[in-house]
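## Example pair
The file below holds two records. Each record gives the amino-acid sequence first, followed by its structure token line.
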Amino acid sequence: MRKRVKDATPGMKTEAVNEEQNIAANVDEIMRKYDRESNTRIWEGIPKIVVGIILALFSLFCIYVTLFANFLEQVRLSSFLGLVIVMGYLTYPAKKGKMQPNYMPWYDILLMVVGSAAFFYYTFNAETLLNTGLKMKLQDPFYIIAGIIGLVVLAELCRRSVGLPILCVAGAFLAYTIFWYVKDGKMMGKIVHELFYNENGIFSTPVNVCSKYIVVFIIFGAFLEKTGISTYFIELANGLTGKYAGGPAKVAVVSSALCGMVSGSSVGNTVTTGSITIPMMKKTGYDKNFSGAVEAAASTGGQIMPPIMGAAAFLMADYLGVPYSDIIGRAILPACLYFMGVFLSVHLEAKRLGLKGLSKEQLPVLKELVKESYLLLPLFILIYLVCSQTMTMQSSAAWSILATIVVGVISNYLRMRKVLKMAREGDLQATEEAEKVTGQQFRLIHIFEALENGGRSCISVAVACGIAGLIIGCLTVTGLASTVINTIVMISQGKLFLGLLLTMICCIILGMGIPTTATYCIMASTCAPILIQMGVPMICAHFFVFYYGIVADITPPVALAAYAGAAISGGSPMKTGVNATRLAIAGFIIPFIFALSPDMLLVNTTWYEVLLITVTSIIGMYGVCYGLSGFGAGEESGSGRISGICKRIISIAGGLLLIYPGIGTDVFGVALIGAVMLWRRFGNKEKA
């Protein structure tokens, strides 16, 4: 993609190149530190090819099974997790740190073999076990031992690929389950039966949906990455917003929203896009803590951005029994308000600091970006096929994968054509552009790499879903979910707002350090029923718990996305987390709004009500962001400072009233924000 290059002295160029090289060198280290998925073994030569083939074959197996196979559910799910165990131990070492290339210790090989054997035992004996009575199965030591080994090996792989937080949650629930069984004098073997072999345990809804839908969309995302869509998103955001006040921060917000749809990881998105946008923000004049916070808040928001929503949209559709298109349709307005809140906060901060945008020479040529908009075609095809319901979600993803291959071929042709045209016109940049195009060409090896990367990305998601299923199994067999629900309902004394507040705290605590899909599974089983029992519509309850599970990634003290942003910016992790929480304030406000008023999620609304809600919510979000930023609110001390605080409080109150749907609240909110604007305007004139 061709850009205008700003003139600079050799010293400036060298300094810029050195900084970019340092950042690039640190990206892998940061990912390994804060993102378990990036802490992988080092394979070289023939072993690397063999492992790559195994991962690619797994991707093809998943596509085949979801599209064509007609296996028993027990066969499909157990074979799926068995293969995940094999790939997981080939990919993830026991601990972080420097690793010896092409080395896998004997105990990892043992865990891989016995763990996968436990799952494949179920695969090849599924039909026999289904026809055998429970009492006879519990008397078979091999049946119990295989289940225990499978659970233990899956838990260890979870520790390696996902992290300890979800294991701590699962361990607490498992300990309670064991205590509950022992207390009632029940056989311990029944725990293994319920959690490993029964559909209420690890083979429950999370793994079922993961193997059926999520893996295919993860593979689709891997193919999209190979077409260069992430780079295109960043360039597009740069071209659209880079020239405005504080441009690089706005680029971070827009590009992270777009890239987050594909990546499905708050930390991964923070590091990949942040390695480009955070240094740009710091050079523009933003504080290092604020720069890291912008990227963390925006990247976390990518998990709530339709149409992918960190793959949780598929789970939500399955849990609620509604079409996938219905989920993403209702998610659009809240997601847009979230990013509008971050965008407005960034804009007001830029105005407060007097920051400028990027110069014309630093911006990409929009005309060139429009020419490359064909890169978005696979995404549009996916959205159309899924929303039109002309075929299944799996088939839609498969056709979209084929579309990415076609787009890759078209991209090669158009880029080479561009280079030849530049050469004919005598353009001095033709050679440089030719080298760039050669490096970006979509070749046959990229199809293999996309299948390999897709298979690798599926590991942590599948493992997290398996452990989430374990938690769900513990809640089901012990009836603990009902106890938790009744306890919170009793504490809240029937007051919905208090119930929402308690549920929010539970979601943030349970969601800390846990991947998107597993977060939603846990919340849907433990927290959503609380709100449903208190009268909140089912879809609103599920969106509520999903949002608060996601913002746990930026909520101190366990704010992994904020920690990753701080590692790039050089700022304080805690200050970055606090700033990110303030920037993402919409993510904390909006769930309360749609829980109290389903209109925000377009439940039983007409088109003109939707239009009114959209307009008033946008104005309201500006009022909230204006009040939180305090830009132009008042002087530093004395009565001016008190006046400024009053304006900020009134602005926030007016904004919240406007975001909450209703004619009365809208009128009152407009009056408050209008009063603040008039106060600011005429107050400044009197001061002058």
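Second record, same layout:
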Amino acid sequence: MKQRIYLTLCLIALVSLFCSTIASLSLYMSFHNQDKQEDLQSHCNDLAVAAAEIERLGGDVLGFLQDAADPSVRITLIRSDGFVVWDSKADSSRMENHSDRPEVRQAMNQRMGQDNRRSLTIDQDTYYCALRFGEEDLVLRLGRNQTNVISTFQQILPLDLVSCLILFFVCAFFSDQATNRIVEPMLEAVNQMDNLDPADFYDELTPFINTIRQQNDTIRAQLDSIRQDRDTITLILMNMQEGLVMLSREKRILTVNNSALAMLRRSDQQLEGENLLQLTDDSALIQSVEQALEGQSVSGYLLQDDSDRIYQYFSNPVYGSESRTEISGVILFLMDVTEQQRAQKSREEFSANVSHELKTPLTSISGFAELMASGMASSSDDVKMFSGLIRKESSRLLSLIDDIIRLSRIEANMEQLQEEVELLSLSQEECEHLLPAADQKGIRIVCDGEAAFVRGNRTMLREVVYNLCENAVKYNKNEGSVHVCIHKTEDTVVLSVKDTGIGIPKEHHDRIFERFYRVDKSRSKETGGTGLGLSIVKHIVQAHGGSLTIDSEPGQGSCICAIFPLSETERNDLN
């Protein structure tokens, strides 16, 4: 804008100087010509008056004119019939009749005549002034060459051009000053738009400034909104558990969140603008991106040799237009599916184990029933024996089904945690229920400790105590003991069940809480276990926000601890 104003002012100055110069030169030339013509007319009149006086006195008029000849003026004496008597610039004998010359005709008719034309005799632009005088009506004509006038102006022109050039530079300087004076307040307004007082600015630009202020406020509000949206999106992307990578068509990284860096084992560094190879060298992942750039949606699993984690990736093309013809980039989405895969594997193992566990008693029942139906067991003793076996296997089958249903309910959170349960009294009640089974083996059960409250479901917690104590009795030695203890720490309640039983090797510690897992399958059949007791205990404890620990060695007995968080009541009492 500043340059445009400056150039406009300079152009105006240049055009003004050009026009004024042309006008002044034209006026000067016009006045100069008029002055020269008047001077020539006066000179012609003086010569004519003098020649008429000489003629009246009988003197030599021609000699007088020859003596009065001026090199810059052409003098011609013409008779009334147009015959040239004498000419100061040409041979009169060779000159044609001048009666048809305009100035001569005017002089004959009006005593004085004048004309501007190109002379055929001397081939120059000439101004003529003619005057009739004397008794013989002679015509005295004076002519002045116009070329002399033009040469005079040619001498003046360089001086005039130099003056114009100086004036132009002066105008250019003042144009620059004027431009600065015009533009500086506007530039100041740009830098201080919010604090500008309209009284300090041009009145003509007040509506413009007000409009700019409104637009600035709108743009500022929109930018703030965009920044907030961007920060929110960035915060979500950076903290989401799933990995997200956005790539350009050239496989340059546009965005990568922290989860993706962790899954692909890259440090938290600036990878924006880098090639995909800086993020991963997995061939399957890179190939999926290339396929996505061709318009395909690809998914697969990312397996790392030195990690037990399983990641599923999805590579999808991003189209740059609604017509979905041009692909502008790729979105790479990664999910940690380790737990889902483990759960799927666990479900498959559970289905296989359930099928096996259900098949065993059903096979026995079917076999015994077939023997009885075929008549092979015809005696009352045989029928009684086989009926007892069928009843035993049916009870085992019902117990197994009941445990499976209970475990499914726990996993589905069908039983709500809703009350404060005092764990010591509950444990003492369950120990009393197991006294008959313990007395058969001569096992002594002791339950002591301190009263402690746990927030949870009484029935589920009762089942935890019962299963742990039942296992402690079932797998204990004759004349052994079971010690149940409740004690509190700063923020937990610990239920420990210690026995003097056969013990569990360390290699089995991590698996004894799995469904249907048995350390000694032959002994489990003797005791009638389903293999789901400790698995039920594990799920109930986890549902209550707790954890399990085991300390056991073969022949040294076992100690299993269920650790629960303190209830709100206990925390308030401690505080």
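Notes on the second record: Residues 159 and 165 are 10 Å apart (CA to CA). Residues 341-411 form a domain with the Helix Hairpins fold (CATH 1.10.287.130).
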